[in-house]
């Protein structure tokens, strides 16, 4: 991983964090930024933060609200993004179909046609959370043949897997 993703005089690559409401996007971003769990409330609009992942590796992450009425605006956050991170609530099987529809709609946007995708299955610390295979199948990720994508499990609550997931996002961007 020792290679530099961006030069110090450049802005870090822009990554969009999306997913249904309640998936844990804001908790995830605050855990990465501050190293601890913060009390959060539903995002109206967006949150933004720069993550220093390692020496020479940073990402600017836009966390976009996931409520139904916000999803119609998701496309406006996609211009110039270098990666899409889609967060799924790994505990909520009842909304996986809704998540699949939302993700498919975003992936059809012309502005992100070749942008890599990272799917994070959040709440891995919760008993009976979905497996990566289960989520991958339900979201039909293997059909994304013209896009680099990965799926990883994580826990915004405990921090499990977050650093590695975003280092993987940085590697996906670098491959482009």
UniProtKB/TrEMBL annotation:
Entry keyword annotation includes GTP-binding: yes
Residues holding GTP: 19-26, 66, 122-125
MF term (GO), any: metal ion binding
Binding site for Mg(2+): 26, 43
Keywords: GTP-binding, Magnesium, Metal-binding, Nucleotide-binding
GO biological process, one term: establishment of cell polarity
Keyword Magnesium assigned: yes
SMART domains xref list: ARF, RAB, SAR
PANTHER family found in the cross-reference section: ADP RIBOSYLATION FACTOR-RELATED
Family: Belongs to the small GTPase superfamily. Arf family.
Function comment: GTPase that recruits MYO1E to MHC class II-containing vesicles via the effector protein ARL14EP and hence controls the movement of these vesicles along the actin cytoskeleton in dendritic cells.
Subunit structure: Interacts with ARL14EP.
Name of the protein described by the UniProt record: ADP-ribosylation factor-like protein 14
């Amino acid at each position: 991983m020792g290679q530099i993703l961006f030069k110090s005089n450049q802005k870090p690559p822009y990554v969009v964090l999306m997913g249904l409401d309640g998936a844990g996007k804001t908790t995830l971003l605050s855990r990465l930024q501050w190293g601890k769990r913060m009390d959060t409330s539903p995002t109206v609009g967006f949150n933004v933060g720069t993550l220093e992942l390692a020496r020479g590796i940073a990402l600017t992450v836009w966390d976009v609200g996931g409520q139904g009425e916000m999803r119609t605006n998701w496309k406006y956050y996609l211009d110039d993004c270098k990666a899409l991170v889609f967060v799924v609530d790994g505990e909520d099987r009842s909304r996986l179909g809704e998540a699949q529809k939302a993700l498919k709609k975003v992936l059809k946007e012309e502005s992100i046609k070749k942008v890599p995708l990272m799917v994070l299955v959040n709440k891995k610390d919760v008993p009976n959370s979905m497996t990566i295979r289960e989520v991958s199948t339900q979201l039909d990720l293997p059909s994304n043949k013209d896009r680099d994508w990965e799926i990883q499990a994580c826990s915004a609550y405990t921090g499990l897997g977050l650093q590695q997931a975003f280092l993987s996002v940085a590697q996906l961007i670098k491959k482009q």
